[in-house]
Automatic annotation (TrEMBL):
This is Bile acid:sodium symporter family protein. Keywords: Membrane, Transmembrane, Transmembrane helix. The chain crosses the membrane at residues 12-29, 35-55, 67-88, 100-121, 128-154, 166-184, 230-253. InterPro entries: Na+/solute_symporter_sf, Put_Na-Bile_cotransptr. It holds the Pfam family SBF_like.
Length: 333
């Protein structure tokens, strides 16, 4: 009961709901939408600059060379998810339409998130260096792997092309600020160690900005009015089931591979995420002439569900005593 009460009344989770409702009622349009996009980019870049400043070069190198962890995360993103997406074909066309199933399968093929995966890992006191490397690498190769998986697993129309700017965006917005943070670390690490509030503010603030931007975009594109309510409910149930299965598998896989708790948290958060920021531009390119709004609806729903669920998980791990190996270990057993 205490966990349920803490979950329902968690200020950060309530903030996510409030921001989603606010964006649905008052979506950003025109100049405000452009300003929101830039503010979100700046917040994410600042987040990674702070991560770079807090991480020692030794920790960053340890995160880079942890190939076993990265391999398992990539397997979850590009093998486990697609397999589950193909299995969900049994729901078509009885419970979900052809376009919605295309969207469900597409969400299973996009890369992991970078910003929220790393933010949740940081909140849960996991291996942030490992999260930065895994999530960034997932996005970089996803620029090539996702279109190839789309071509291999579903029928598309129109020409398929890859925008080289996607790789540049990842480098400029994520990896470059992280590198700058590493460079300025000697001058700012002491202050950041003594003051945790700025990092927490950027962690949570960047997630809230992403939620607001996503719901604003969905309202501006009239996504919610183009499909029956009961079909949306089915897609929500499918997204919840999909996330629950992947969270369970990644958690136990981390224990099976013998990863320490900090690395299991990286696998849990990075291996279960799907990127709205990467998925939406890819969908616009890959599904030319098709109902893109409907196709990205499952990804939009999954993205919000994963933020809310992982908020609860990250907050619970954050409250664990330093000497406790895992607050969920006994429950998981």
């Amino acid at each position: 009961m205490k966990l349920l009460r803490d979950t329902v009344l968690d200020p950060f989770l309530l903030s996510i709901f409030a921001v989603a409702v606010l964006a649905s009622l008052f979506p950003a349009t025109g100049t405000a939408e452009e300003v929101l996009a830039w503010v979100t980019r700046i917040a994410i870049a600042l987040l990674f600059l702070i991560y770079g400043a807090r991480l020692s070069p030794r920790d960053a190198w340890d995160g880079l060379k942890h190939w076993r962890l990265h391999s398992v995360i990539l397997a979850s993103t590009y093998l486990l998810f697609p397999a589950l997406g193909l299995a969900l074909r049994i729901l078509e066309p009885g419970l979900i339409s052809d376009d919605l199933y295309t969207g469900v399968l597409f969400l299973c093929l996009v890369p992991s998130t970078v910003q929220s995966s790393t933010a949740f890992t940081s909140i849960a006191r996991g291996n942030v260096a490992g999260a930065v490397v895994s999530a960034s690498f997932s996005n970089i190769i996803g620029v090539f792997v996702t279109p190839l998986l789309v071509i291999a697993l579903m029928t598309t129309t129109g020409s398929v092309s890859i925008d080289p700017g996607s790789i540049l965006d990842i480098v400029v917005q994520l990896l470059l600020p992280f590198a700058v943070g590493q460079l300025i670390r000697p001058w700012v690490t002491g202050w950041l160690t003594r003051h945790s509030a700025p990092t927490k503010l950027v962690d949570r603030g960047s997630i809230l900005l992403v939620v607001f931007a996503a719901f604003s975009a969905s309202m501006n594109q009239h996504v919610w009015s183009s499909v029956a309510v009961w079909r949306i409910a089915v897609v929500v149930a499918v997204c919840v089931l999909l996330l629950a299965v992947v969270l369970t598998i990644t958690w136990y896989a981390g224990r099976w591979f013998g990863f320490p708790l900090e690395d299991r948290l990286v696998l849990l958060f990075c291996g279960s995420k799907k990127s709205l920021a990467s998925g939406l531009p890819m969908a616009a390119v890959l599904f030319v002439g098709q109902p893109v709004g409907l196709i990205v609806l499952p990804l939009l729903l999954f993205h919000q569900i994963q933020l809310m669920v992982c908020t609860v998980i990250a907050q619970r791990f954050a409250r664990r005593p330093e000497s406790e190996p895992s607050p969920a270990a006994s429950a998981a057993d």
